[in-house]
From TrEMBL:
Family, per entry: Belongs to the peptidase C54 family.
Gene, per the UniProt record: Atg4c
Molecular function terms from GO: cysteine-type endopeptidase activity; protein-phosphatidylethanolamide deconjugating activity
Ranges of biased composition (kind: Polar residues): 432-446
Region Disordered: start-end pairs: 16-37, 424-446
Coiled-coil intervals, chain numbering: none
Major enzyme class: hydrolase
GO terms (BP aspect): aggrephagy; autophagosome assembly; mitophagy; piecemeal microautophagy of the nucleus; protein processing; protein transport
Main location: cytoplasm
EC nos: 3.4.22.-
Keyword Ribonucleoprotein set for record: no
Organism: Stylophora pistillata
Positions of the Peptidase C54 catalytic domain: 101-381
Protein name per the record: Cysteine protease
Length: 454
């Protein structure tokens, strides 16, 4: 027993001595501990990147099978395996029907933006990939890219089947570079890095998930702050409360954003209109399926970002009861866009994907492009006709148009309320539709829509 006690005592002394030695070493090497902590975080980030690459990096886009007896609609264009005249889905007018070869060229010409790996570090994070969390941002990038192609190269632009002029090639590569994964605000105004930086004002960090409404506001801020000369005559408008206010659109499109000497104040500028909506509760309300189909038959539509729960997609058309989409869930290596001859193959999706309307999440953002004032008036007229679900007793449009925003109270009451708020130093931000918002305004979308990501 005495021997055991002696052994135990000597053991305790050894442990205490070792503890004191470790404590002394810890005090002398606090800097090295910080380095170890930094290295552990770096290792954790690398492991997460490897895991996401395993999940998304080896996904092979499958080939969609289309019904040869039904037309396919792709952003206002109708295609059919049997090329013949076909009546519009919700119109008595005849529309021009194109061949499936033309469909492939049209779809192949859409800009496909996916997960990327080995990109420059995102802000203060250790992330060098957006695998597993950036799909909604990528979907938003694709929709804005389509609007910019319409703006600079028009709807008929194709990357295959005909020769591009040098001017078209210049504009096309400039548009692609706008979305390059670089820390360059002027050359890459819609880069993942810049969108994450704008989102940081709402408390979101690289690696967080985004909803379609949040992405719409982030894209608007990215356009409003864009300094590239080619972006000075195009704007992004985001509808509030499912309402497009025509006076706000007109003010946005006729105001000088850059205040430079060559800015033509009063001249109508092009606009990309983004409308965040929620088409149901937990699931898509089927009464809106005909409305969504009708939107894809309009020339002004540039698609829908949304998807199914935890899986963002960029919808560009439909056939029967399936939506045609571009899927960002495919991890590719970063592309060096610093040179003019950078490869463009990785920005073209060879095969479309399809998804049933029934699987679509009700939270989404619809995009439109209007070139001129007359084009905007035509867009408003045509869109109004298809926003209300057919054969419904109630009046439940997807969204509406209004001439101006009506105040909820009299002007005298608003002035007195503003005075009271100023006296008590209220921190409540003033709500504005398309001015630069505060963080709370930017995250005005309901938290429920934030799960439509990954």
């Amino acid at each position: 027993m005495a021997g055991s006690a002696g052994s135990l005592g000597s053991g305790l002394l050894s442990i205490q001595s070792a503890a004191r030695q470790k404590s002394r070493e810890a005090k002398e090497s606090s800097d090295s501990d910080d380095d170890e902590l930094f290295d552990s975080e770096k290792l954790k980030t690398k492991l997460m990147s490897m895991w996401n690459n395993m999940r998304h990096g080896f996904v092979v886009p499958f080939k969609a099978h289309f019904n040869e007896d039904s037309p396919i609609w792709l952003l206002g264009r109708c295609y059919h395996a049997r090329n013949h005249e076909f009546s519009g889905v919700h119109s008595t007018e005849k529309c021009k029907v194109l061949s499936m070869d033309e469909f492939q060229r049209d779809f192949h010409s859409l800009i496909w933006l996916t997960y990327r790996r080995e990109i420059p570090q995102l802000g203060d994070s250790m992330l060098t990939t957006d695998c597993g969390w950036g799909c909604m941002l990528r979907s938003g990038q694709m929709m804005i890219a389509t609007g910019l192609v319409y703006h600079f190269l028009k709807r008929e632009f194709r990357t295959t089947g005909r020769c591009m002029s040098r001017e078209q090639e210049h504009f096309y590569k400039t548009i692609l570079r706008f979305f390059g994964d670089l820390e360059d605000e002027e050359r890459c105004p819609f880069s993942l890095h810049r969108l994450v930086s704008i989102g940081a004002h709402t408390g979101k960090q690289a690696g967080d998930w985004y909803g379609p409404a949040s992405v719409a506001h982030i894209l608007r801020l990215a356009m409003a702050g864009g300094t590239h000369p080619l972006l000075h005559n195009v704007n992004v408008y985001v509808a509030q409360d499912c309402t497009v206010y025509t006076d706000e659109v007109e003010k946005l499109c006729t105001s000088c954003r850059t205040h430079t000497w060559n800015c033509s104040d009063g001249k109508w500028q092009s606009v990309i209109i983004l409308v965040p909506v929620r088409l149901g509760g937990e699931a898509l309300n089927p009464i809106y399926i005909p409305c969504v189909k009708s939107l894809f038959t309009l020339d002004h539509c540039i698609g829908i970002i949304g998807g199914r729960p935890k899986h963002s997609l960029y919808f560009v058309g439909f056939q029967d009861n399936k939506m045609v989409c571009l899927d960002p869930h495919y991890c590719q290596a970063a592309v060096d866009m610093s040179k003019d001859d950078f490869p463009t193959q990785s920005f073209h999706s060879v095969q479309p994907r399809t998804m049933s309307f029934k699987k679509m999440d009700p939270s989404c953002t619809i995009g439109f492009y209007c070139d001129t004032k007359a084009d905007f008036e035509r867009f408003r007229q045509q869109t109004t006709e298809v926003l209300r679900p057919p054969m419904q007793r109630g009046d439940y449009p997807m969204f509406i148009f209004a001439s101006h925003r009506k105040p909820m109270a009299s002007e005298d009451f608003v002035r007195s309320a503003n005075l009271s708020e100023s006296l008590i130093e209220s921190a409540e931000p003033e709500r504005s539709n398309n001015s630069v918002p505060s963080p709370s305004t930017l995250s005005c979308s309901p938290s429920a829509e934030e799960y439509v990501v990954l």
